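Let's practice the habit of predicting before peeking. Look at the sequence and jot down your guess about where helices and strands might fall. Then scroll down.
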Amino acid sequence: MKSSNLGYPRIGENREWKKTLEAFWAGKVEEEDFLLQMEQIRLQHLQKQKDKGIDYIPVGDFTLYDHILDTAVMFGFVPKRYEYEGGKVPLSTYFAMARGSQTAVASEMTKWFNTNYHYIVPELTGIKPTVTENKPLLAYREAKEKLGINGKPVIVGPYTFLKLSKGYEQKQLPALILQIVPLYAQILQELAEEGVEWVQLDEPTLVTSITADEMKTVSYIYKQLQEAAPELKIMLQTYFDSVEYYSEVINLPVAGVGLDFVHGLEGNLQSLATYGFPKDKILGVGLIDGRNIWRSQLTDKAKLVEIITGTVPKERLWLQPSSSLLHVPVTLSQETNLHPLIKDALAFADEKLDEIQSLVKRALHGETEVMKEFNQSETARNDLAQSPARNRLEVQESVASSLSQVAKRPSSFDKRREDQQVLELPFLPTTTIGSFPQTIEIRQARRKWRRGEWTTEVYDQFVQEQIKTWIGIQEVIGLDVLVHGEFERTDMVEFFGEKLGGFIFTQNGWVQSYGSRCVKPPVIYGDVEFLQPMTVKESLYAQSLTKKPVKGMITGPVTILNWSFVRDDISRSEVAFQIALALQKEVESLEALGIKIIQVDEPALREGLPLKKSAWGTYLDWAVKAFRLTTCSVQDSTQIHTHMCYCDFHDFIEPINQLDADVISIETSRSHGELISSFNDNKYDKGIGLGVYDIHSPRVPTREEIVNVIESGLQVLEPTQFWINPDCGLKTRGIEETIQSLQNMVAATRLVREKLSVHNR
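Done guessing? Here is the structure:
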């Protein structure tokens, strides 16, 4: 029995990766020094895994931005707008694809399966692929030469890469496969020639609802790869759920298959019992949760290993995390402020690797070898389960009562729309999503307050000054519905978690969301309850400064759930309902004090969808109910907005409709308005904002570009339902570019209004 890891967090114990990346973008570090610093970070990560005794250490999982983008540039999939001329892709082109440039828009970004990690979507249109650089080979050489590590190169599998790409029709897939499989074969052949023993090909697409024909395509691909490099051992790695075609997958011409026995436990274990496992292959047992931070119940995990060894002997097992550890923080070692009751029940990436080693030792040498670790695990989990935080009877009874009722607004949308005319909004109303630039001064002020250097009164005054400034800026720009700017908020989920019962926060529990953007998810450890109003103070102050409506801004229950580390002792739906009932009280507090537009953001609602379509209905039932619980008690004249982030909405229009929000805004700019085509086939009669420019790029959109986006939307939407807004919050943007972009957005809207007025005369 061996230990294995599938991938390690990139960001570093103190976010060294993020800081180095942003220093390079800011021109503070030259390219040569930047690459040297990144190499040092990468080697530190590998050395740590070596020191922990991991037998099969992944190499090539490290990236300068995103691993899918790495794969795309490795095969020369660089869109023509970047003026790439062949050969190794320059760093400037690489980052232009990720972030955009003054001359070219960025590539689309979307969620990595059902996680909060975002990847850059490869564009395959009109490009003849070629191997520009064998990145896995370079990573293998570096680890071996500098650390003596005989690493396991990690590569996104060919079928998953193609399925996650865009720019082709289904009928073109066979031709693309014929183009790309030889390139993968070349990569594998060069690895084999270098003496690589194992290579990990990640194919998480195999856990989604693929068809029998798709599985045949996968079989064809792996037959070709095996024939190209017969001496190289391929570990076909799946994760996030159970595989769809188990018997076909385990009989692919590969040396090993990795299965998720955490998130795909029931399905994979049942398949293993029913169909067995080949006697000539290694089984990678995804045993430790790679997506959550709770300490494992090691005794239960050891029993699961014993069950599996009834089918597959120990010598053909690798114990490993259920997925890459990219999705969890690096280490608990710096968490000095957590209450012992919580800290003892947690395990970050480093601690999860220790758990793997403990389970290997237990299986190989018996229980006495790891008795202490096992007892500590059981005690920590039991102590937390019995704590008052997880046994708040009033909260649990409120959830039970809510489940027996129908959560819905009292009147239809048509009736509400009539009552909301009191807002006196023009057609094509303009607004923003919520946040404005968080400058260095704002972040410094927050730090001073948290450290006790500023009193709460001084900090509140500072926040009010920021709100006043930006209410004035919005008035001058000419926006129709204003926001207060969220200057008091570090993060849209963290802010609410700090003010609700049942949450706790880490000091350094950062994880990567996209690029250099790192988030510190809240930890939901107990029953969630409303304690006191959370957003009223800032919203009321902003509204007092203007006669225009100011939106109250709340993060929705499903997003708070999906962007937190959630307790694992009760169902996710029950936690969502607890959050919803707490947020309902916040919505009611805003409405009672005169806030007439309330935005309940749900950017993560779709990303929580199960990977198997057969399970969508159950999830959507409770996710929609949680949103409606939050918003159902307001008056008809109160306008409820929501916002959603990057993801494929083409098959998601009906659930959006079921939310029964008066207005929804959706990120669409990077997909070049492809969502608009969905409205040709799906009727949607409520208010909707299709983001008219990309806020993730520093590029300022022109007035003409925004006019084109608006006019495209008006081909399928009525002017009375179309809202004009950026495609997400403006927190990460600079002040000048924000103002210029919004000025262009408002000017473009006025041009379109004038055209429509002339046309309708």
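How did you do? The chain has two domains: 2-385, 416-760.
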